[in-house]
């Protein structure tokens, strides 16, 4: 009897191995994924799928070829909803009905007389209001009247857009996801993020913190000799620093610090003010036209991206107020305009290390996350502080979604079978720092 059982067991194992090898060598197609990883970011969002058999992750592009989709939703007067790049393209002519930065508001309660909330409202051309419970919502103007839209509704529209990318790719309906959130998100913010996914028709199998997802993307949970990891996340709107302690494949967040008023948009705003001053001085006219301001804002964002690779770039504008205007912006000038902002990057690093009694030399690995870490000056400041080069191998905009996809693949049981790292909840509170110069 035992011999028969052994033969049956051995036969099953042989079939499993044969199936695995056949899939790996392309003899049969891999199974259709049932779960995806999503990074619902403040500025950009992405979706990734763990590839069974190969163990690779694929970050899926949308129809425009964008793997990082702008977290922007535009509402046209006739009720049409545009998402991502399409929303950004019409933003210049429809600023009041184009919503971005919704993640800043999700699951939070505000007071209408809070100076910081009032200051935040001035950053946006669209209307933000509070309901009777202090929850933020947006108002957009449609032909049928005013429509109230919640932050989680904006999130759900972005998630649904991402899901459709995966559905089209695999010609199936992917029903589940792993979604990432900032490590500092409390239970309420996590619940509202989950609600956004559910509104998009998806079941959330797991919520993973963004720093842990980024560490997973680099496979640090499998790297020997790694105990302390610092994740430096500088996106469009916020700077988050997290220190992770890795022991036996388990991540524990030891400290969190950050500046919720420092990101790529702040570098842009500083540069935008400078450029507007130059234009106004040259033409002796005030730039108040909203379409002109929006055009300048978009041109500066494009220039900042170009300055990552070249020392100077030309900004060409055609403004309704003054007509044609050209300006050469150099990387050196960009860095000088934002010097105090770049200097303030060090503050959260120091605060996070102090919070868990560590020194820079105690950190084994540095992980950069967020598109703004592509800025050469940012990498220089971080590298100099720790005296070692950060990890660059994974696209910083895609590190979090890559890690979420890895987690999704393991939950989905894809080959090759592996045990990924676990994450323990933390009771640490984030140390909030703010830019010294309030003008920023």
UniProtKB/TrEMBL annotation:
Example of a GO biological process term: response to stress
Location of the protein in the cell: Microsome
MF-aspect GO terms: ATP binding; ATP-dependent protein folding chaperone
Entry keywords, A to Z: ATP-binding, Endoplasmic reticulum, Microsome, Nucleotide-binding, Signal
Family stated for the protein in its record: Belongs to the heat shock protein 70 family.
Entry-linked PANTHER family: HEAT SHOCK PROTEIN 70KDA (PTHR19375)
Complex and partners: Binds UBQLN2.
Chain's role: Has peptide-independent ATPase activity.
Protein name: Heat shock 70 kDa protein 13
Organism from which the protein derives: Panagrolaimus superbus
């Amino acid at each position: 009897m035992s011999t028969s059982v052994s033969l049956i067991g051995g036969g099953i194992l042989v079939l499993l191995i044969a199936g695995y090898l056949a899939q790996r060598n392309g003899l049969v197609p891999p199974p259709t994924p049932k779960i995806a990883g999503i990074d619902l970011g403040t500025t950009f969002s992405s979706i990734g799928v763990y590839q069974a058999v190969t163990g690779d992750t694929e970050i899926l592009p949308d129809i425009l070829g964008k793997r990082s989709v702008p977290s922007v939703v535009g509402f046209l007067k006739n009720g049409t909803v545009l998402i991502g790049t399409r929303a950004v393209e019409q933003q210049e002519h429809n600023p009041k009905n184009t919503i971005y930065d919704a993640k800043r508001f999700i699951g939070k309660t505000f007071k209408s007389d809070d100076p910081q909330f009032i200051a935040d409202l001035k950053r946006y051309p669209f209307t933000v209001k509070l309901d009777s419970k202090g929850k933020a919502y947006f108002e957009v103007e449609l032909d049928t009247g005013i429509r109230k839209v919640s932050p989680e509704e904006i999130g759900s529209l972005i998630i649904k857009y991402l899901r459709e990318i995966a559905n089209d790719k695999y010609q199936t309906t992917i029903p589940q996801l792993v979604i990432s959130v900032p490590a500092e998100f409390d239970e309420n913010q996590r619940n509202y993020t989950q609600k956004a996914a559910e509104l998009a028709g998806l079941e959330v199998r797991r919520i993973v913190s963004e720093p842990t997802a980024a560490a997973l993307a680099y496979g640090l949970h499998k790297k020997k000799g790694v105990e302390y990891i610092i994740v430096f996340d500088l996106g469009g709107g916020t700077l988050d620093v997290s220190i992770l302690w890795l022991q036996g494949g388990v991540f524990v967040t030891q400290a969190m610090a950050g500046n919720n008023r420092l990101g790529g948009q702040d570098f842009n705003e500083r540069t935008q003010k400078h450029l507007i001053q130059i234009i106004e001085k040259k033409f002796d006219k005030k730039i108040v036209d909203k379409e002109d301001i929006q055009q300048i804002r978009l041109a500066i964002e494009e220039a900042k991206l170009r300055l990552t690779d070249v020392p100077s770039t030309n900004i060409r504008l055609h403004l309704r107020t003054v007509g044609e205007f050209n300006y050469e912006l150099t990387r050196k000038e960009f860095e000088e305009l934002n010097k105090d902002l770049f200097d303030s990057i060090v503050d959260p690093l120091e605060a996070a290390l102090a919070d868990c009694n560590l020194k820079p030399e105690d950190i084994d690995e540095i992980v950069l996350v967020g598109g703004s870490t592509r800025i050469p000056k940012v990498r220089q400041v971080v590298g100099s502080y720790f005296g070692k080069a950060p990890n660059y191998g994974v696209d910083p905009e895609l590190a979090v979604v890559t890690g979420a996809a890895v987690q999704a693949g393991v939950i989905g049981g894809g080959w090759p079978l592996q045990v990924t790292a676990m994450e323990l909840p933390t009771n640490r509170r984030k140390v909030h720092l703010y830019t010294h110069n309030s003008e920023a």
